[in-house]
Amino acid sequence: MDGILEFLRNAGATEQAIGVSVGGLVGVFATMAFFFIMIVVADRFGKH
Amino acid sequence: MRQKALYDALIILCCPSYAGYIRGMQDVFIGFTSITWKMLVMYGIGGVLIWLAIKKQYEPMLLLPIGFGAILVNLPLAIAWEHEGVPGFLRILYDAGIANELFPLLIFIAVGAMIDFGPLFRNPLMIFFGAAAQFGIFATMIIATLLGFDLKTAASIGIIGAADGPTAIYVATKFARDYLAPISVAAYSYMSLVPLIQPPVIRLLTTKEERRIHMPLHEKQSPQWLKILFPILVTMTAGIVAPISVPLVGSLMFGNLIRESGVVERLSQTAQNELAYLVTLLLGITIGGSMSAEKFLNWDTILILAMGLVAFIFDTAGGVLFAKFFNLFLPRDRKINPMIGACGISAFPMSARVIQRMANEEERGNIILMQAIGANVSGQLGSIIAGGLVLALVPLLVK
Fold this sequence. Notes:
Largest interface: A-B, 31 and 47 residues
Number of helices of chain B: 22
Number of helices of chain A: 2
Radius of gyration of chain B: 25 Å
Helix content of chain A: over 70%
Number of strands of chain B: 2
Oligomer: heterodimer
């Protein structure tokens, strides 16, 4: 992880933007997936 | 000619009252003599924004004050902004509400109080469209760097694709304060143009058959405790994943908690009405007040406005294509109408209305509004999560 960050710090703006984009999209999907699981579990829990 | 100048100089020296007269006349006409062609252009831009607000009803609550603020700040001497070192009322509002990010956060409390996550709880799968439709943010950020903007400015431009004015203002204030005005104007203008931007992109990426897909309506009601717990858990999650996003997420979810708690109805109504209107009024005129000709009239502004449109197009495309991808794994009778994917942008509830209208045009009686609203509220959530992640990730790479 540190290696990737170090590489991106020394890279050009476009490479950095691609890095932020990958990280951002993965982060948004992961966070939303967590909320999805939360809602589904709560729904199941609510039925019992 | 030189003799005349010498004569005037002698008169001024010998007769102070005449000198005062000359200075007085200069003061009287200073308004006329200070006008530049750039100011005239800004009056035109302000006029167009006011015209769009009144005649076309495009986001009138914001474009009207922004347009007037743009005229106000470009009047000779810019007294409304600052005069002889003394801040004018626009500058005071800017320092009090934009420079410290207060106004966007207050707007978020109001927006949170307006959002009902019920349709999302009934169709939890819709939450992924709120993530997919953030694609435009990141695609535009990459394009902006290719056009020569530095990473922080590019990130602020990309955030126009959040289709969320307060998030765009918040991120721009942190990363690219000089571009705050064009970014805000682009964000709000394109949000109002969603009914014009989205349909052609959706038609381009979907077949008529896909647009006619029916979706079953889930009638189940979500438990009240889930509605109360959700804003608290979302805030805590955001605080752990991207601590810098807490002001954004926290204020939105605080507004939502007020709404869903059911015990502070007056506070909820105040947030949805008085607070929303008052802050919108102040935010609009202050954003307009930051549109001075020197800052606004340049090539970068044109690029930012163009990229704002690109961001909205990529958002829509990202959502629609993700829905089509999703359909590859779903049984025939449970396919998702791919138009729903376009509702993953944060322009709430306009995008959901546009999609429902399109569904009805394709096949009369096809009701997908509830699913569309579910995707649309998840877009609100997705946009602030994306904004928070951008705020967290960019400083890791650049100081």
